[in-house]
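We were asked to recover a plausible sequence for a given structure. The inputs and outputs are reproduced exactly as logged, with field labels preserved.

PROBLEM: sequence recovery
POSITIONS: 255
GIVEN STRUCTURE:
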């Protein structure tokens, strides 16, 4: 609470769910004359810092875009390193996630991921399943279009098998077939490295999400940056396609 007071924030002003496109690892390394993999290794420090700050702020959910379905086009050496790094993170950070009462989940296709990575994830997910604090969701081998297509396939199968009446299909029912079923939509989406695009991330879920883009490369992103993003978010008035509350109070006509 003292940290929030120092920034002039109240808990109810904060986003409940923050999603982050962690971009700029390769550029961070290349700017310093290092191989790209050095940037990925440094990026793990940013993950730790953001998780810790998210817990301090009382965020309910934090979703991190770790590996997209398109990222498999990268050089094999870099991909092998990313898989080793992910496996190492899942193992080494397990105790820290327990200490911070964080529950770990994953979204994305399991098919195509190394067995040893999936086994490490399953162990960490099982160990943290009873935690009641922030939910940390890692998007691995994930793509928004792929997620929607897979959900549509599962729904179509249930309709075919007589489990779902087509007349009952609406947005809420369809959302239950997504990888994020049961989760609230992100309130705030952060993208690092200054890129002005969504990159196939949570396409269904971010329909009314507030966007915050920073030129900071992911390896340099820290808790203070997350707090700044949340501060900017708190100053916005979300309308969800309607009119601001102030306009409604004043009787402003629609249109």
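RECOVERED SEQUENCE:
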């Amino acid at each position: 609470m003292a940290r929030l007071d120092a920034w002039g924030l109240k808990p109810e002003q904060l986003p409940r769910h923050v999603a982050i496109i962690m971009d700029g690892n390769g550029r961070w390394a290349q700017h310093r004359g290092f191989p790209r993999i050095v940037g990925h290794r440094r990026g793990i420090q940013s993950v730790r810092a953001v998780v810790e700050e998210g817990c301090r702020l009382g965020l309910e959910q934090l979703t991190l875009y770790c590996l997209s379905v398109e990222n498999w086009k990268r050089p094999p050496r870099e991909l092998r390193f990313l898989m080793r790094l992910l496996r190492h993170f899942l193992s080494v950070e397990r105790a820290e996630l327990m200490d911070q009462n964080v529950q770990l989940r994953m979204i994305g296709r399991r098919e195509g991921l190394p067995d040893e990575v999936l086994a490490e994830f399953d162990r960490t997910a099982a160990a943290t399943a009873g935690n009641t604090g922030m939910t940390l969701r890692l998007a691995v081998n994930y793509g928004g279009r792929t997620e929607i297509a897979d959900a549509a396939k599962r729904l179509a199968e249930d309709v075919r098998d007589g489990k779902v009446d087509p007349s009952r299909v609406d947005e809420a029912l369809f959302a239950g077939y997504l990888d994020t079923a049961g989760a609230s939509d992100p309130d705030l989406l952060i993208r690092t490295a200054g890129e002005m695009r969504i990159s196939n991330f949570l396409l269904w879920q971010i329909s009314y999400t507030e966007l915050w883009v920073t030129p900071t490369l992911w390896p340099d992103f820290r808790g203070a940056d997350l707090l700044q993003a949340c501060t900017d978010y708190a100053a916005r008035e979300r309308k969800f396609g309607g009119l601001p509350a102030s306009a409604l109070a004043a009787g402003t006509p629609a249109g």
